[in-house]
Amino acid sequence: MELSAKCSFLAIVSGFSLLVTFDTVWLLATFLSYHPLSTRNDSACQESLGESKALFVVFEALLKDGLLLVLFILQHSLMAHINMQRLLDKIGLGVLTRCVYVLASCASLQGVMHYWQPANNVCLWNSPSNGWIGVILWYALVFMHIISWFIVYGGCLLVDVGELIGVKQVLYYVRGLPDPLKSKSEGLLRYYKHMRHPSFIGFSLLFWGIPQMSLDRALLALQLTIYMFLAWNTDERDIDYLRYQLEDKEAHENGDWHHATYIRKQH
């Protein structure tokens, strides 16, 4: 009975983590893409920084936004480095390590979006919204955002989205199976530690590819781009591992089983 109650609790937490993740991703898509692309009014950004009559208000908003991003970055980085599983193991919930991390990340990210202070009376650039040039540019940006979100979602699927959220770990535990990470190769686990996110290019396009670059959006784009760039610690060994995986798959697809076995032995 006690084991059944624990499994039910784990299932509820992991299911809640899944729902919160989908909700956060939807809100993030609205925040990063829908709101910026739905604004096609040139009058939204007419002032330059030197002409703004409310510089204090602008800088206050940027300060608050910058602090929100710092809090998110600290949570996202520190919780990835501390041994959360050891802490959760003490209360018998070590299998929820990934779910707890994902829930904390969603909470901090939703906090950023909820308390974000716009500073859109000043823009670094403002593309035209009228005429055929403005129409073509707007549709090009919409298409780019759609492709970028496919890249983001595709990257998550490639690294096993169930495992990424933590649902797969709970499912394996309930079924009496070992942790799915234990079946991963040493090279893949090493790559996971160095790769902070599978969609660096996709998110970079989402951050910067908007028609009106207000100061608050520029702050978000710059701060998160730098964070992703600095947190991406892949090295030559990781590149060799990815090259080996690609060559191995190509050998199997071409029916060159002897070649694939030879490559595997070399690694």
The poorly predicted ranges are 261-267
Tally the structural domains.
1
* Rg measurement, Å: 22 Å
Q: What does the overall shape look like? A: globular
Query: How many strands, what sense, and barrel or not for the largest sheet?
Result: 2 strands, antiparallel
What oligomeric assembly is this protein in?
Answer: single chain
Helix/strand-derived class? mainly alpha
Which strands sit side by side, in order, in the main sheet? 1-2
**Total helical segments:** 12
Let me know the average pLDDT. 81
Helix content: over 70%
| Relative strand content | under 5%
End-to-end C-alpha gap: 47 Å
- What series of H and E elements makes up the topology? HHHHEHHHHHEHHH
Q: How many strand units?
A: 2
List the helices and strands and how they pair.
Blueprint: H1 2-38, H2 55-81, H3 84-89, H4 97-114, E1 123-126, H5 131-158, H6 161-165, H7 167-174, H8 186-194, H9 200-208, E2 212-214, H10 215-231, H11 236-253, H12 257-266
Antiparallel strand pairs: 1-2
Detailed description of the structure:
This protein is an all-alpha fold and 267 residues long. It has one domain (2-182, 206-232). It has helices at residues 2-38, 55-81, 84-89, 97-114, 131-158, 161-165, 167-174, 186-194, 200-208, 215-231, 236-253, 257-266; strands at 123-126, 212-214. A two-stranded antiparallel sheet has the order 1-2. Helix 9 (200-208) packs antiparallel against helix 10. It is globular. The model is unreliable at 261-267 (pLDDT under 50).
For this entry, give a set of tags:
3% strand
